Amino acid sequence: MTFSVNYVQRDGGGACLRLAGELDLSTAPELAAVIDRLTATGETRVLLDLTDLTFCDSTGMAVFVRGDNRAAADGGWLRLTGAHGRVERVLRVTGLADVLRYEPESVDPALRSAS
Fold first, then answer.
1. What is the maximum span of the chain, computed from C-alpha positions, in angstroms?
2. What is the rounded CA–CA span in Å between residue 81 and residue 97?
3. ∠ CA(50), CA(68), CA(2), 5° rounding?
C-alpha cells in the first residue's frame, strides 16, 4: 500500500495532515519533510489525522516525537487523532498516546489545552 500526506488548513489555526497507508522506514522521511517544511514556515500547531493510516512502525513513531519536539521548541505542539486498530494499539503500548495527548473520543484533541 502506498503512503500519502494531505495538508488541510484548520479553522482554529494550525495545520492538519491526513495520513493514509503505511508509515514505515521507507515512507517516514516523507512525513518528516512535510513537518519540517511546516515548522520552518512558522506553523507551530500540527494535528495528524491517522484515520486512514493502516500501519506505523517505530520509525513513524519517531517522526511523531521529533515533530512534537520541533513544534514545542517554538511554543507549539503536534497532536494525533483518528488512530484505530494496530496503529492505536502501538500508540498505547509505547506510551505515545499519553505523551502526544491522543484522545480517540475527541474529534480534534488539539482543541483541548496545549499545556
1. 36
2. 10
3. 35
**Closest among 89, 101, 93 to 64, alpha carbons compared:** 101
87-108 per-position pLDDT tens digit: 999 999 999 999 998 867 655 5
Give the global pTM: 0.87
**Rounded distance, CA 83 to CA 89, Å?**
9
Instruction: Report the C-alpha gap between 57 and 86 in whole angstroms.
Output: 10
Q: Please give the share of the chain, as a percent, with pLDDT higher than 70.
A: 88
Q: If you average pLDDT over residues 51-75, what whole number do you get?
A: 95
Residue 82 C-beta-side C-alpha neighbours within 13 Å:
16
